[in-house]
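Could you please review the protein record set out just below?
***
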Amino acid sequence: MLLASEIKAAIARGDIKISDFRESALNPNSYNLRIGDVIKQVFPNASEGSLEYIDPDKPMICRTGTISEKGVILFPGYVYLVPTMEVVETNKYVPMITGRSSYGRLGMSAHREAGFGDIGFSGRWTLQIDVVTPTLLKPYREVCQVYFNEVVGDPDEMLYNGKYQHSDGAVESMAWKDIAKL
């Protein structure tokens, strides 16, 4: 895992790119990422009888909104998709995100099983935020952090070029596109 001094050196070399880099967001071994003012709430896209559920084999149903300066209240039982403000790119390290402990202590999770990035990914991270109790979320807050791991082997061997490459907003699941590969 890269420490702050090596993250700065990797940025200077061009091995890591973080749009709008702010030294104040640098931690001992990570970098805080902010959210913007866009939010998507995920809703069931399938039903059987009276049961509504999310079917990963179908495109998602989302309602897009704006997080005002006063904030938006998030409710338990829903997933909210919120993009990071910063674009992160690296062809040399494995980027990973995790929630910041200050928000975790509020019962907020910044991601669900999507904190692992691939070498070569370039874009805004889509956070999958959920909460255990109604929680006020305001825009431009540093709710997660990215850290970088060194790799063993040639990182240029297989750079990411998947369906989420160059994400620029809250991108919903595209699991349904994987059906064609089966």
Residues 4-13 form the longest helix (10 residues). The chain has a mean pLDDT of 91. The first strand starts at residue 16 and ends at 18.
